Amino acid sequence: MSSDASRGPHIGVLALQGDFDAHKIILEQLGARVSLVRKPSQLEPLAGLVIPGGESTTLLKLMQYFPDWWPEFQRFKDNGGAFFGTCAGMILLAREVTAPAQKSLGFLDAKVERNAYGRQKESFEEVGQWADGRPLEMVFIRAPRLCEIGPEVEVLASHNDVPVFVRQGKIYAASFHPEINGVSDLHKIFLDALAE
Amino acid sequence: MEQGTLRVKTGLAEMLKGGVIMDVTNVEQAKIAAEAGAVAVMALERIPAEIRKHGGVARMTNPGLIKEIMAEVSIPVMAKARIGHFAEAQILESLGVDYIDESEVLTPADDRYHIDKFAFKVPFVCGARNLGEALRRIGEGACMIRTKGEAGSGDIVEAVRHIRAITSGIRTLTLLREDELMTHAKELGAPYDLVCWVAKNGKLPVPNFSAGGIATPADASLVMQLGAEAIFVGSGIFLSEDPPRHARAIVQAATHFKDPEVLLKVSEDIGEPMRGINVASMSPDELLQTRGV
Predict the structure, then answer these.
(1) Residues B66-79 pLDDT 10s
(2) Which of chain A's residues have a Cβ under 8 Å away from the Cβ of B3?
(3) Partner of A9 at 20 to 30 A CA spacing, among A49, B16, B239, B289?
(4) At a CB cut-off of 8 Å and minimum separation 6, what does A98 contact?
């Protein structure tokens, strides 16, 4: 764990595949120190890890090619490391994945349905809501849907009454893509939580 | 609710970064690609090397085949329309493919105009050999650019030429004075506002991928080190000796493109790559890259 107060926490962005650069840019704008993570050994010094949007099946395959990923993720979490997953990242964090069923880390007590909002032509942007009712811009791309969440999962934002940004302890997950808007309050919430 | 916005359309291309998009011609190949970790598949009746051999007119793939592949894999499915053939593109959009490649690999339907890609909800990728061509396609609404390279050749030289031309073209613009940009826009044959955007931001406004001759993990690493953000592999997988192993190796190479140790490991024991054709031995009328510039 390293967290240099003057420079913000040290965050990793999983860079196996996906829009990791977009996350990196936003986190750096918010004052975090950011490393791209391509090997399990790179997790050690980090306070938190962002798992970006991308293709969850591709991410899974790339993790299988280096079998150390699974135990290292678990160890990172057990040592107090935080996670923030968007879209594919949320799928990997969930307890259960459907359409089709696939392996996941199970750090978030939730069931997630892949591509539940349809194919690319059904992808959309719309204004949803923070838990307190404030508006929040959301971009959904072949997005997964949270269909069940456990009692310890707190809903931070929703769209048409479906939870789209949730938290369980130090695990944060969003089904949309705050990273492609160029600015993101979600990332700020994640960093603020790490600073506490 | 807004669909088909620029943000939603380029957004999917952002999600494909660092990945490998593989050409497949049937359900079996689509499964092999997905199993290896392809980030998307391109559904085709023939891979580019076979299109070359086959001759005749190459058209949009039969929608029935695309549908079967869409039903089989959970990753995005792309399909090609002929350059300028907006009716083929309308059919593909209606079918629900996730990306349309307005591609020089198929026989062009219009020798003067490309498709108005803003008119579609589904995003388009187009090929380019240099910055001017890339910006013309973006000006028409393309949400992803890929190098043309020379499809079906298995020879990386053209993809290298094209990615270098695009990235050095971008670097040049960033060094110019503002009062020089209009003349450069004229010389590039590119929209002035896009030339100004690139000069200011030092990159294309959409993701920049590479295609056209990638046949080995080392080829993947080469174009990515030269600035490509993801790759398309057409004939390189299914004309190799051991397609599943080759596919897995290239997927890993796209992620670990800067890590020679991983590249070494994945390059061992993958069998023979596709045989290929030396592009320098081809006559100009055999080249696909000069279509639709």
Answers:
(1) 999 999 999 999 99
(2) 121-124
(3) B16
(4) A111, A112, A113, A114, A147
How much is the ipTM here?
0.94
Which one of A10, A23, A87, A159 is the catalytic residue? Answer: A87
pLDDT for B16 equals: 98
Q: Which residues of B are catalytic?
A: 80
For the residues B27-31, what does the mean pLDDT come to? Answer: 98
| Catalytic residue list contains A177 | yes
B40-43 vs A145-149, strand pairing mode = unpaired
pLDDT digits (tens, 9 = 90+) for A132-168: 999 999 999 999 999 999 999 999 999 999 999 999 9
First to last CA, chain A: 13
Residue of B2, B18, B38 with shortest CB distance to A15: B18
CATH of the domain at A122: 3.40.50.880
Chain A nearest-CA distance from B211, in A, is: 18
Residues in chain A whose beta carbon is closer than 8 A to a beta carbon of chain B?
15-22, 38, 53-55, 57-58, 60-62, 65, 87-88, 99-100, 114-115, 119-126, 139-142, 177, 180-181
pLDDT, tens digit, 9 for 90 and up, residues B238-255: 999 999 999 999 999 999
B258-271 per-position pLDDT tens digit = 999 999 999 998 99
From A193, A170, A183, A187, select the one nearest A137 (Cα to Cα): A183
Task: Using CA coordinates, name the residue in chain B closest to A115.
Answer: B74
pLDDT on residue A1: 44
d(CA B236, CA B201): 34
Tell me the residue range of the domain where A49 lies: 3-195
Taking the C-alpha atoms of residue A20 and residue B155, their distance in angstroms, rounded to an integer, is: 30
Residue B42: both structure tokens together: 């391109």
- CA distances A101 to A17, A44, A105, B72, Å, are 21, 30, 13, 14
B90-110: average pLDDT: 98
Overall number of domains in chain A: 1
CA–CA distance, B125 with A88 (Å, rounded to integer):
22
Interface size A-B, in CB pairs within 8 Å, comes to 119
Which of A60, A121, A126, A139 to probe by mutation at the B interface, max B CB count within 10 Å?
A: A121
